[in-house]
Amino acid sequence: MGKSNSKSIQSSPSLSSISSVTSIPRLLKTHRQNKSSSSSALTYFSSSSSTQLSLNSPNSLNSHLEIMSQYPSSLNENLLNSDDFDICQYIGDRKYCKSGIEDVNYVYPVDDDEVDRCQMQHFLMKHIWEGNFSAPVEELLSSYDTKILDIGCGSGAWILEMATEYPRPQFVGIDIVPLYPSEIHPTNVKFRQANVLTGLPFEDETFDFVYMRFMTFAFTINDWERAIKEALRVTKKGGYVEIMETDFRWYNEGPFDKTSIGKFLQTQNMDLIASPLITKYLNKFSNSEIKHEERKIAIGEWGGKLGKLYRELYGWASRNLRKVITDSGINDTNWDHTVEICLKQLNELRAYDEIHRFWIVKSLETEEE
What is the pTM of this model? Predict the structure, then answer.
């Protein structure tokens, strides 16, 4: 059985200066529509050097947006509005995975607005962690023989950045809905529509590095076991598996938060606190030591510019859950107002949550079946 080695990071990196954080969704949309938009719209500080970076800096948010705009089909309106997705349907003006399909549990929309939210989430997580991964895979990333899999790749933000920064390995991204670029992407990237819960279309021990994140709202409690077992199956012995998730458990939350946010998960059979499940099944299917890091992130202006951005991301994500709120029997008439009250209370009480990264080396010994 694996052993857990937990490293707790008590304070997260902070953004020291942001000239505007009130319209990140609009900034992403504007950048997508007009790459020549003003570079003075947003600035922020590097968490490691405290040096101000403009949007034109190669280490800035704008550089990430610029990378993504090179692959327009990841946000292609025709692609997103295609009727070719057998598992999708429109409800009003939003697109979702159809309900009632076995092993398809994703509760968020699958459209432009949600893709933009995921882009923001990607950039923010990269800043918080000061990088796109924690496993010691730098040597692997310098080899032409390395194969890397991104499970639940979404729009492809992580894999497109990684493949651009590390042009030698071969990258594969899979997701149940093809929001990723279908044609225009780096030559060392391939995307496939696939569902980890029904079995990945790869032979045993295919990949040197398997990466998975942001699956809390795609997996039921029982799905984690199958997903982690399948991720380990396609990983080479001696290869790496890394999983990143946020525990949506708010420290210092208020009474309104306790009764308002997360109720729907009871009907969805999901668990907001994924880290114990990840530890449990990595232990079950691996003989290797589990490496664990965490970040505690402030929610709201009390945490400075980073906390303000994180609050905005929380609000955006909560508003995009409107459909599942209604499906769960909760009246959504005042949902936006409810979200704002919750976020206000989280800020006033100086609340925060935890983000986790787990990684292991797949044992050379035979894993438990």
Answer: 0.81
